[in-house]
């Protein structure tokens, strides 16, 4: 999220995955997968259920072991870092898990403040203000701050989890299905919010999603996971032109067609 | 790029041309990690009344994030509130957008402080609450006992409910797997009682009575009591944790809407298994303890196994054994029901799960001991 003076270098790679192989037991989930994410972009990641989108994200975050391959985050290879450098790197990543993963015994505000407390040296008053600020930015009502996760609706959990992911103003955020379980208006707001955060904070966003609206409206690039690797990456046009039955039915299916048509109709 | 190498945020103030106000020149990285050194200066600026104009110069700011932007925005908003004219210089479009995107002020929501309570309320409310809690616990315990007997299905009037596989599985978990630890513990307890008994009785030259002492104490009281306490810690906690985490993840609700009775499905197999297993474990414990006592009696007092057994046969009546064993199923039910009641009280958080598991173990051990005392009084008054 560096806002260095001058134009950001074009196509600086913030996440690069090379020849990644991941499996459980005898089952290989990802085979020789390669992927690049560029600074400042919103990458939409799609694929059929169970193809390994969450597994890829968890592997990149080092929550799952890999069999082979290298992963470089923000230009650094985690395996070659010292303990202090790893912590510094972790601080620059934000993660929204598929099921929120909020700490159930802490209120929303305390959830957001937890990473701040651990890493930052700010006075309590400022941390309170920042937590309330993140809550406001993610579109939660102010009174959600003192609620516990079990008292939140599904959509509120997503927003609270996003607020926590953004607590430290990370450079790179991973979102696993951020808009699933939101109403269409809420989902559209969420998409807008992510685009706005990208513009203002200079975030790079890696977003796993099944939401065609998000793909068409906010994603700069789309990558498709299939056959244990990235089948194709590129813009919506590239997807529409790509010759693969799954990709075709995904982007040209009944639900997609109406969106594409309305997009085309726009001036 | 490393966050440790960020230039710290700093600011300097200069009087504006014409003496109408101040210019604040900002520099460095206004990011959450590099912000702390400048916060004091920002506070100080905020307290100063200031002139008519405030100019913020962003030209030397390297980086900024929400925390830096927020601090600066607060500065601008409070200056504007004081009637100051605020201007900025040298902002990049991204900075402008970021600062613009932040709200002017936050609707801070404070939990309304509860009405002040009188001394009377503060003194007696906890007592009343405890009594009510106790009453509710008793009701739900009765509920669980009743529902457990009714079985799994709520609908179609089917009463079968009992699934033998589940019960046997629980018996394996709670019983068979507990045998080694129960045996070891009882062996040691038997040995310790025998050793101390032998030392004391030696003064009277009545060492042989150590067999009576160990036999009656173990078979009537200690055997079943310690086994029950052990099982309360081992299986009671497990039951509470299992049911509690199912409650937490709405699995209990899922059973309910399927028309199944959670008590019948989840709790009954555990209760049934406990009621079968605790008496059996008590028997195992008794054998182990008597064996431990026999070993100690032989080593310290030279009482051979043969003499030990003969004396045991004379000292212990069949009713002694029955008096001990009768308590076991009751204690099993108490442990199971207390664990289930606590498990169903678990709320949405991991913390409440921990609290309820603790409560379950403490309460069931307490009730087990209380029950043992009641049985002792009962036996005494009927002369059993
Ligand atoms: N810990 C695990 N052990 C064994 N297999 C696993 C494990 N985690 C995931 N898998 C398997 O890996 C595959 C990919 O799972 P993953 O959760 O990544 O799917 P996904 O692409 O995220 O799907 P969805 O869109 O439904 O979230 C699945 O077949 C799943 O069964
Ligand atoms: Mg997934």
Automatic annotation (TrEMBL), chain A:
Q: Name one GO molecular function term.
A: ATP hydrolysis activity
- Ranges of residues in domain ABC transporter: 15-252
Per UniProt, the keywords (alphabetical) are: ATP-binding, Nucleotide-binding, Transport
Q: Show the InterPro entries listed in the entry.
A: AAA+_ATPase (IPR003593), ABC_transporter-like_ATP-bd (IPR003439), ABC_transporter-like_CS (IPR017871), P-loop_NTPase (IPR027417)
Tell me the Pfam families matching this sequence: ABC_tran (PF00005)
Q: Which domain of life is it from?
A: Bacteria
Task: Tell me the first and last residues of the signal peptide.
Answer: none
Q: Which family does it belong to?
A: Belongs to the ABC transporter superfamily.
Protein name, per record: Phospholipid/cholesterol/gamma-HCH transport system ATP-binding protein
Q: Which organism is it from?
A: Gellertiella hungarica
From TrEMBL, chain B:
Fetch the InterPro entries from UniProt: ABC_MlaE_roteobac, MlaB-like_STAS, Permease_MalE, STAS_dom, STAS_dom_sf
Q: Which Pfam families match?
A: MlaE, STAS_2
Q: Which SUPFAM superfamilies match?
A: SpoIIaa-like
Q: Where in the cell is it found?
A: Cell inner membrane
TM annotation in the entry: 178-196, 208-233, 254-277, 283-303, 315-341, 361-382
GO MF annotations in UniProt: phospholipid transporter activity
This protein's UniProt keywords: Cell inner membrane, Cell membrane, Membrane, Transmembrane, Transmembrane helix
The UniProt record lists the STAS domain at 43-99
Predominant location: membrane
**Family annotation (Gene3D superfamilies):** STAS domain (3.30.750.24)
Bilayer topology reads: Multi-pass membrane protein
Q: Which GO cellular component terms are attached?
A: ATP-binding cassette (ABC) transporter complex
* Record function comment: Could be part of an ABC transporter complex.
UniProt family annotation:
Belongs to the MlaE permease family.
* Protein's recorded name: Phospholipid/cholesterol/gamma-HCH transport system permease protein
């Amino acid at each position: 999220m560096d806002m260095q003076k001058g134009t950001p270098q074009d196509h600086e790679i913030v996440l690069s995955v090379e020849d990644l192989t991941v499996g459980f037991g005898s089952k290989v989930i990802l085979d020789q997968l390669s992927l690049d994410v560029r600074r400042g972009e919103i990458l939409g990641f799609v694929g059929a259920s169970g193809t390994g989108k969450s597994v890829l994200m968890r592997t990149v975050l080092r929550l799952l072991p890999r069999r082979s391959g290298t992963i470089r985050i923000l230009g650094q290879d985690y395996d070659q870092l010292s303990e202090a450098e790893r912590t510094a790197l972790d601080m620059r990543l934000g993660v929204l898990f598929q099921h929120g993963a909020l700490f159930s015994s802490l209120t929303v505000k305390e959830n957001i403040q937890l990473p701040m407390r651990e890493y930052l040296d700010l006075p309590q008053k400022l941390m309170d203000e920042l937590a309330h600020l993140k809550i406001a930015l993610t579109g939660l009502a102010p009174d959600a701050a003192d609620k516990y996760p079990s008292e939140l609706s599904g959509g509120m959990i997503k927003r609270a989890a996003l607020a926590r992911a953004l607590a430290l103003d990370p450079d790179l955020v991973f979102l696993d299905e951020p808009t699933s379980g939101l109403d269409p208006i809420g989902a559209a707001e969420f998409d807008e919010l992510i685009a706005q955060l990208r513009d203002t904070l200079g975030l790079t966003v890696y977003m796993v999603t099944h939401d065609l609206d998000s793909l068409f409206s906010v994603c700069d690039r789309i990558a498709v996971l299939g056959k244990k690797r990235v089948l194709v990456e590129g813009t919506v046009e590239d997807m529409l032109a790509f010759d693969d039955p799954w990709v075709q039915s995904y982007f040209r299916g009944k639900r997609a067609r109406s969106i594409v048509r309305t997009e085309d109709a726009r001036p | 790029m490393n966050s440790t190498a960020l230039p710290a945020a700093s600011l300097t103030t200069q009087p504006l041309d014409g003496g109408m106000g101040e210019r604040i020149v900002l520099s460095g990285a206004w990011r959450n990690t590099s912000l702390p050194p400048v916060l004091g200066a920002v506070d100080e600026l905020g307290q100063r009344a200031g002139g008519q104009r405030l100019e913020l110069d962003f030209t030397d700011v390297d980086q900024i994030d929400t925390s830096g932007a927020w601090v600066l925005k607060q500065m601008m908003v409070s200056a504007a509130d004081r009637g100051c004219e605020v201007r900025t210089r040298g902002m990049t479009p991204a900075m402008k957008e970021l600062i613009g995107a932040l709200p002017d002020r936050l609707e801070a929501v404070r939990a309304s402080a509860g009405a002040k309570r009188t001394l009377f309320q503060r003194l007696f409310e906890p007592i009343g609450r405890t009594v009510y809690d106790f009453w509710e616990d008793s009701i739900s315990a009765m509920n669980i006992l009743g529902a457990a007997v009714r079985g799994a299905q709520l609908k179609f009037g089917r009463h079968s409910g009992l699934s033998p596989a589940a019960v046997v599985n629980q018996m394996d978990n709670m019983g068979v797997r507990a045998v080694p630890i129960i045996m070891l513990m009882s062996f040691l307890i038997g040995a310790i009682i025998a050793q101390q008994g032998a030392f004391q009785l030696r003064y009277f030259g009545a060492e042989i009575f150590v067999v009576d002492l160990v036999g009656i104490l173990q078979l009537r009281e200690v055997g079943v009591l310690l086994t029950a306490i052990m099982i309360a810690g081992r299986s009671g906690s497990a039951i509470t944790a299992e049911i509690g985490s199912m409650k937490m993840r709405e699995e209990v609700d899922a059973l309910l809407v399927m028309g199944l009775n959670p008590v019948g499905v989840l709790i009954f197999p555990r209760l049934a298994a406990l009621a079968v297993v605790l008496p059996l474990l008590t028997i195992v414990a008794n054998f182990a303890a008597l064996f431990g006592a026999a070993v100690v009696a032989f080593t310290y007092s030279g009482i051979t196994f043969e003499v030990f057994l003969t004396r045991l046969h004379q000292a212990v009546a069949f009713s002694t054994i029955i008096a001990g064993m009768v308590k076991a199923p009751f204690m099993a039910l108490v442990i199971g029901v207390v664990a289930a009641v606590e498990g169903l009280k678990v709320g949405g958080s991991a913390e409440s799960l921990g609290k309820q598991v603790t409560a379950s173990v403490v309460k069931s051990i307490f009730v087990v001991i209380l029950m043992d005392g009641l049985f002792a009084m009962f036996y005494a008054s009927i002369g059993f």
